[in-house]
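Lay summary. Proteins are chains of building blocks that fold into shapes, and those shapes determine what they do. In this project we predict the shape from the chain. Here is one chain we studied, written as its sequence of building blocks.
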Amino acid sequence: MLPKLDGRPIRVVIRKSLGPHLAATSIPGRVVNLDRDVLIDHGDFERILVHELFHFVWVRLSNQTRWDWERLLANEIRRRVKGELGWSAEWRKDKLTAIDIRQRKPKWRHYACESLCDTAAWAYSGLSAHGEFTLDAAARRKRKAWLVKNVGTGPVPV
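And here is the predicted shape, written in a compact code that computers can read:
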């Protein structure tokens, strides 16, 4: 279940088409745009909406909390854990280099954000399975524990 969110309203708009994307979020504008195609496949609306809402959460986490998430991810990469909990994080993960991670380059920081949003979508969308949920069970448990510890049941600032 999605934790209680706390903050100014976020407008969610269903658009006829967003081109090649299923969603686009403006944090300053406090709007989530969803392509109407997210309404076709069971669970996509919930999964993608939760992912987009967690972009608002990410920017309100403390640096210490974000760095802690990055450490969890770096440990997964060191252990050569394969897979992810969404396409958005997976394609970014596949393009990372050791230098990106070590120097915390933008590619690494974008991956960290997307992986948190995809993890939240997995944890809070109510879906038990999806073709994009490819991360192994042990890594999923560690990520879920991190979310419980750092996000909890809310209220979560957005």
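What the prediction tells us: The mean pLDDT is 96.
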